[in-house]
């Protein structure tokens, strides 16, 4: 459920007409629903109520907007970060450092040191080399680093190849068959408090069977490590639960996921950690766009909109589907290609899609744009960086400004021989 709906012939975000926001802020613009964020955070947390010990860390990469992070902070979520910049955002949003988990395969020495200085709660180590380096930095600072070892279970999540992270050929984690020996060696490193294991097999997971298989393998590895005398008190199961992008699509929900996790982990006697992202923010946002013109085509007309692949990259990167709906639908349908103004054929949101009839000047939305939307935006073709708005009830506010090309190129410098 979300809080974007048609009332009296036009689409609202909670109690605010989207047309009102578009008129004042311009398009394209992302709009987030405060109530939807709250509800999804609560539903996910409640689905895990059977677990005696747990930790929830929102995957900041899915939507790092400070207002979004602040809503989730108030819901008791920590943060899963993959860069120093994301860590700084989480801290700026008031998320306690002790509730921050630092993941990611390429943490630099500088980032490891900065995270230690900030006092974050846990590092998810991706390699033995990283663990050794982290221990060395912690020793030099006169302290220790709390960590888990991320393991690659060689399980296919059944998702898009570019967001799969748990197969043997993926870059993440240490190989499952090497994990016990690496864990033993790292446990002996002075400066490192290795307290558990981490796993994450992919994003937009639509079938719980691969997750179950991965978690069962991790449980067996945990038992093996404990039998060898090692301490394993925390198990980070990552995130990746998918959301429906198409109207009428049905996927496993948080309740299904929570029941599966409770069953698999019932005898683990560990704190179970989670890194939900898309499942919290995906349906909490839309991207409003204006139709520039409808251009005749060979097989179907082209609906040219002012949003582009630089504003919403998922369709061009993953052939991802986002429902496209008129803000003020006429009750008639048409078949069309939906494209943006970028000078590339890859700037295509949909082909041969049955959509609401639209004309030049009409407003429309791309649904389910709250995750991996604005965070992946860029300024290709020297376009402005898309703004973001949050709605709560009948109130709304710009929570990220549109950054115009002039502001962006003001940071560029000409060398002496050109100036």
Largest sheet: 9 strands, mixed
Content-based structural category: alpha/beta
Q: Give a count of the beta strands, DSSP E runs of length 2 or more.
A: 21
CATH superfamily of the largest domain: Alanine racemase
Number of helices: 12
Under the CATH scheme, which class of the largest domain?
Alpha Beta
Q: What is the second-level CATH architecture of the largest domain?
A: Alpha-Beta Barrel
The whole-number mean of residue pLDDT values reads: 94
- pLDDT below 50 for ≥5 consecutive residues: which ranges? none
How many separate domains?
A: 2
Large-scale geometry: globular
Report the sheet-strand fraction.
25-35%
CA-based gyration radius: 23 Å
Distance between the termini: 56 Å
CATH topology of the largest domain: TIM Barrel
Report helical residue fraction.
25-40%
In short:
With about 425 residues, this protein is α/β, with parallel strands linked by helices. The N and C termini lie far apart (about 55 Å). The radius of gyration is 23 Å and the shape is globular.
What does this structure look like?
Belongs to the Orn/Lys/Arg decarboxylase class-II family. LysA subfamily. It comes from Altericroceibacterium endophyticum. Its EC number is 4.1.1.20. With 419 residues, the chain is an alpha/beta fold. It folds into 2 domains: 4-32 and 282-409, Lyase, Ornithine Decarboxylase, Chain A, domain 1 (Beta Barrel); 34-280, Alanine racemase (TIM Barrel, Alpha-Beta Barrel). The chain has 12 helices and 21 strands. The chain has helices at 18-25, 34-47, 66-74, 84-92, 109-118, 128-140, 179-187, 208-227, 254-264, 278-281, 314-318, 405-409, and strands spanning 4-7, 10-13, 16-17, 29-33, 54-59, 78-81, 100-102, 122-125, 145-152, 174-175, 192-198, 234-236, 271-274, 285-295, 302-305, 324-326, 333-339, 348-356, 363-366, 388-392, 395-400. The strands form 3 sheets. Strands 4, 14, 15, 16, 17, 18, 19, 20 and 21 form a 9-stranded mixed beta sheet that branches. Helix 2 runs parallel beside helix 9, helix 5 packs across helix 6 and helix 8 (208-227) packs parallel to helix 9 (254-264). It is globular, with a radius of gyration of 23 Å.
């Amino acid at each position: 459920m979300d809080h974007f709906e048609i009332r009296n012939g036009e689409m609202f975000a909670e109690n605010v007409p989207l047309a009102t926001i578009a008129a004042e802020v311009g398009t394209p613009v992302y709009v987030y629903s405060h109530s939807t964020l709250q509800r999804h955070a609560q539903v996910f947390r409640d689905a895990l109520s059977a677990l005696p010990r747990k930790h929830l860390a929102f995957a900041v990469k899915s939507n790092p907007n400070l207002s979004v992070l602040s809503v989730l902070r108030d819901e008791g979520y920590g943060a899963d970060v993959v860069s120093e910049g994301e860590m700084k955002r989480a801290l700026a949003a008031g998320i306690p450092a002790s509730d921050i988990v630092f993941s990611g395969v390429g943490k630099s020495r500088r980032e490891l040191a900065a995270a230690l200085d900030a006092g974050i709660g846990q590092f998810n180590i991706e390699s033995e080399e990283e663990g050794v380096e982290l221990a060395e930095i912690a020793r030099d600072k006169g302290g220790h680093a709390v960590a888990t070892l991320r393991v690659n279970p060689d399980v296919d999540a059944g998702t898009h190849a570019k967001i799969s992270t748990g197969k043997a050929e993926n870059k993440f984690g240490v190989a499952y068959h090497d994990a016990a020996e690496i864990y033993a060696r790292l446990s002996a490193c002075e400066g490192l408090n290795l307290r558990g294991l981490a796993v994450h097999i992919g994003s937009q997971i639509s079938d719980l069977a691969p997750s179950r298989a991965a978690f069962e393998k991790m449980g067996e590895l945990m038992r093996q490590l404990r039998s060898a005398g090692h301490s394993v008190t925390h198990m980070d199961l990552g995130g990746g639960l998918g959301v429906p992008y198409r109207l009428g699509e049905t996927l496993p929900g948080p309740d299904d996921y929570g029941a599966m996790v409770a069953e698999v982990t019932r005898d683990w006697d560990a704190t179970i950690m989670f890194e939900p992202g898309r499942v919290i923010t995906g349906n909490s946002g839309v991207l409003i766009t204006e139709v520039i013109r409808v251009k005749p085509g060979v097989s179907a007309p082209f609906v040219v909109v002012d949003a582009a692949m630089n504003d919403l990259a998922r369709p061009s990167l993953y052939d991802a589907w986002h429902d496209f709906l008129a803000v003020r639908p006429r009750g008639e349908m048409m078949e069309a290609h939906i494209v943006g103004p970028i000078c590339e054929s890859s700037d295509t949101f949909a082909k041969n899609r049955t959509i609401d009839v639209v004309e030049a000047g009409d407003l429309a939305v791309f649904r389910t744009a709250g995750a991996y939307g604005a965070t992946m935006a860029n300024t290709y073709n020297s376009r402005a960086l898309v703004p973001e708005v949050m709605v709560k009830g009948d109130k709304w506010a710009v929570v990220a400004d549109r950054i115009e090309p002039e502001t962006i190129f003001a940071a560029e410098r000409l060398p002496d021989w050109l100036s």
